[in-house]
Amino acid sequence: MANDGRTRILEAAKALAESHDSVQGVTISLESVAQQAGLTKPGLMYHFPSKEALMLGLVDHAAKDWAQRLREHTGHSSQELTSFDRHRAYVTVATTAEVSRADYWIFSDALYHPKLSRAWSEHLGPWFDTAGLDDRAVSLLTAARFCADGAWMSEATGVFPSSDLAAVRTHALALIDGAEAAIDAAAGVAVGASDDAGAEASDDAGAEVTG
């Protein structure tokens, strides 16, 4: 029941943010959220004793929702996927899912309150991990992610939205394909060099035996 109460409050806070015509017009307070949720302020404070606690809970709720969308899209956890497939999932979801003005406001507010950024890093960070990749691959994956970030921002705010999100998605996915192809090509060169070195060593050994 406690979790149901928390979720009800967080959904009310998100709905309150979504109901405004502009992100700048959003006002989140214990009183306004309690009214939106149909609760008394003390009833809300049982779950969130301060505005900071409410905001931290709201950010965590939004970040978890995005991570869940990515898991549902792929059918896998981030640990089960390559960096390329994780980025493909984000690009696809960010350019096809119904985006929320509230999510954008919650995300952008983290820029001014470092505590609020932790939940985004915790839940989405594993999806953007590029450890072990070379600089070129990382730059291509980052460019693809930035394409998706921009698409999400434009759609959520209504400021200069794309007239053809499918084309944006196609180009972003092509960047990811390029990153993966570069890694595969580099791996192929490394294997070829190793094989050549092995063959050369074998030839040298054969020559010594013959001699």
Outline the structure in words.
The chain has a domain at 75-210. The chain contains nine helices and no strands. The protein has helices at residues 2-18, 30-37, 41-47, 51-74, 83-96, 101-109, 114-124, 135-157, 165-210. The mean pLDDT is 86. Residues 3-66 form the HTH tetR-type domain. This is Transcriptional regulator, TetR family. Pfam families: TetR_C_28 (PF17937), TetR_N (PF00440).
Key attributes of the depicted protein:
211 residues; mainly alpha; 9 helices; elongated; Homeodomain-like_sf; Transcriptional regulator, TetR family
Quick recap of the structure?
Residues 3-66 form the HTH tetR-type domain. With 211 residues, this protein is mostly helical.
User: Structural class, judged by helices and strands?
Assistant: mainly alpha
End-to-end C-alpha gap: 85 Å
Radius of gyration: 24 Å
Q: How many DSSP E strands?
A: 0
Largest sheet geometry: none
Number of helices: 9
Low-pLDDT stretches: none
Strand content: under 5%
Choose one word for the global shape.
elongated
Helix-residue proportion: over 70%
Helix and strand run? HHHHHHHHH
Average pLDDT confidence is 86
